[in-house]
TrEMBL record:
GO terms for cellular component: chloroplast; mitochondrial matrix; ribonucleoprotein granule. InterPro entries: FAST_kinase. GO terms for molecular function: RNA binding. This is Uncharacterized protein. GO terms for biological process: chloroplast rRNA processing; mitochondrial RNA processing; regulation of mitochondrial mRNA stability. Residues 13-49 are annotated as: Disordered. The lineage of its organism: Eukaryota, Viridiplantae, Prasinodermophyta, Prasinodermophyceae, Prasinodermales.
Amino acid sequence: MNEVNRVTALHRCAKLSRGAAKPPREQQQHTNQEHRKTNASSSSSSAGHQSLLLDPTFRQLVAAIRDELGALSALGLANAAWAGAVLGLERWHAWAAAMEAALVARPVGEFKEQELTSALWALAKSEMGSCAAFAPLLQEAWLRLGRMRPNQLAMLVLAVAEARVHIPELMIDAFEALEAGDGVAQLYSNSAVSVLYALARLSYAPPEVDGLVAGIVERLLRPEGEQRRPALESLSPREVGVCVWAMGSIARQRLASGRGVEGPVRSLVAALLARVENLPGTLTPMQLANVAHGAGMAQMSTEGMLARVERDALRLSADGALQPGDMAHVAWALATLQGSRASPRFLAALEAQLAEGGFLAQSNAYETTLCAWALVVAGRRRVDVFAR
């Protein structure tokens, strides 16, 4: 097996680990919950993924690719970076160091636009946005904005958001390039969510981007396909959660600046919440936190969505699957949306967790404050639960 075949094998492992063989354009997104960065994909924590990372043959494959990264073409290097990011190989220090060195050594002019954006997203996803390779690649991508296709622009702004590299001039140029022609109309549904997420994660929603947001909202609400269903119907449950969070964050920023939340934005949030009601199975902890937090920030809800959030939160809490941050955001959202009527059963479960002491030991100050605020708003003022 030569280096091309090895990279292809790694790339396919990455796609399979995500639960479906999706093309590289459908990049994984994260949710920022104000105080921490967490993975919004359940696949990375699955038993199958963990088994793959421990498999001796797979580890030999990774080691072989790592040792020959410098000999790969720009395409091969970008594909290896993307696959490594999806698989979480940055946790293996030798892989991260070798990838950084190979990207630094490769002249940026050799990368095509898709390869640039893939490599940038991979570095950002791997929390390597501060490494020596990121800035030169980003500068080159900036120079080529006019040559990028809409979905490549979406991946670029997603990478910038993931890396928390907020350069307003770059974002303005990227969004202007995206709005040129019918760029927004050409976005894949998941790419449209990526742009909304980037705006929300960077807390960047000035009036200048209102037109872009309106275009994306229209894109997601527009019927398509033979059945003429809204584009948002094609979003995965994970993407629905991310989109609810992003739209909630954008709505909150507009409200804070004294600007209203116009009809189309409210229509999209309402449509997303309606989808939440009918999603199969139990929401993952991150999907649950995204939906609850986003609805709370947008100050919008439906009875069905609230019932779904309460049901899944209680189920996950009983299974010990909810982390303190997830519970805090669900509690905050329920209290924000329902006030004193907020779910007595879930808040009782939260109080029980707080009383055990271990919950507070795992929580940061922000999460503890959210819990306290939610309990007070709901009229549950047991100071003793915070005594430990």
